[in-house]
Amino acid sequence: MYGKAGSIEDAKKIFYRLVKKDVVSWNSMLTAYAQHGLGQEAVDLFEEMRGVGFQPNEITFLCVLNACSHAGLLDKGLYYFELMRKYKLEPDITHHVTIVDLLGRAGQLDRAERFIREMTIQPTAAVWKALLGACRMHKNMELGAYAAERVFELDPHDSGPHMLLSNIYASAGRLSDAARVRRMMNESGVKKEPACSWVEIENAVHMFVANDDTHPQREEIRNMWEKLRNEIKKIGYVPDTGHVLWFLDQQEREERLQYHSEKLALAFALLNTPPGTPITIKKNIRVCGDCHTAFKFVSKLVDREIILRDTNRFHHFRYGSCSCRDYW
To answer: What 3-state class would DSSP assign to 280?
Structure first.
């Protein structure tokens, strides 16, 4: 519970106070480490679990593989994947997805594609989405387009892969192809999930959507963000407008970025929490590249830890960097 809420230290305290641990408690702690990008801690815990005689199950291996993937521990992850068979456990599709993600994070895209082709079970949309996400990060447009086509065949109504492919094209300057993917979404009736972010302060949850003007503190929130934006520009922040509608001019594209839901939630939290205290924000979809960059600069500017939980993981922003090492 504490791991999911963002408090890894509280999760550790509870875990190590347990007099009698079972495989579920070990797996829960491994999951918390994985979600927070603490790969080496997860590996150490897994080895501790084995050392005291606990038998890992399929979920245990999935947890430690995810941790290795999020932390970029390529060799360890591949070793544990092979170790499953030593415990007479057969990897299922979720373990294969994690290995594709692991290889993709390491930039070994060709090896990831070969791994998919050599799988003894049929690849699912999730497998190809893992490869597509890696192609976005490493800007491999050709392989990304191929992976996206496989996803469209298997799960045509998922908006995420459409947006990823559109962003890959936009980043490469192929704006007409990016627009074509957006048109294809509209023609197929694929709807992008509306983004929202929320933050809990004094036992009250405050929710925001992009360009939100409904909050009682809306003027203060917008003024705070505009002040932050101007300050972080002075220390190196450059708005990432590559994924904004290509037919807008540069100023309009920057404005489209400025009031994303997580930025409004962050400005609100800074207005309503004591200096120096950590801030935790949650979002219902993956954080965009520009917001991720902006959060890094804000964490440096205000000298506070900012924790952002999106659909993929926890991002811990400290001193101008993120725990995900810019791969999410």
So the answer is: strand
Which two structure tokens, joined as six digits, stand for 37?
A: 């990008």
Q: How far is 200 from 281, CA to CA, in rounded Å?
A: 8
For the four alpha carbons of 46, 49, 52 and 56, in that order, the dihedral sign comes to negative
How far are the Cα atoms of 46, 240, 257, 288 from residue 293, in angstroms, in the given order?
A: 33, 8, 12, 9
Q: Is 319 left (phi over 0), alpha (psi -120 to 50) or beta?
A: left
| Mean pLDDT score, 97-125 | 97
The DSSP letter of residue 247 is T
Contacts of 30 (CB under 8 A, 6+ apart): 42, 45, 46, 60, 63, 64, 67
Between β-strands 196-201 and 279-283, what pairing exists: parallel, antiparallel or unpaired?
antiparallel
The whole model's pTM is what?
A: 0.84
Nearest Cα residue to 125 out of 99, 101, 89, 161:
161
Neighbours of 96 (CB within 10 A): 22
How far apart, in Å, are the Cα atoms of 78 and each of 103, 115, 134?
Answer: 9, 12, 17
pLDDT band at 244 (very low <50, low <70, confident <90, very high): low
Using CB atoms within 10 A of its CB, is residue 114 exposed (0-12), middle (13-18) or buried (19+)? exposed
pLDDT at 70 (0 to 100)? 87
The continuous run of DSSP H or E covering 208 comes out as strand 204-209
In terms of DSSP bridges, do strands 321-322 and 314-318 run parallel, antiparallel, or are they unpaired? antiparallel
The beta-carbon contacts of 167-174 under 8 Å, at least 24 apart in sequence, are 167/136, 167/242, 167/243, 168/135, 168/136, 168/139, 168/141, 168/144, 169/141, 170/242, 170/243, 170/246, 171/136, 171/139, 171/242, 171/243, 172/139, 172/141, 174/141
Closest CA to 326 of 281, 287, 282: 287
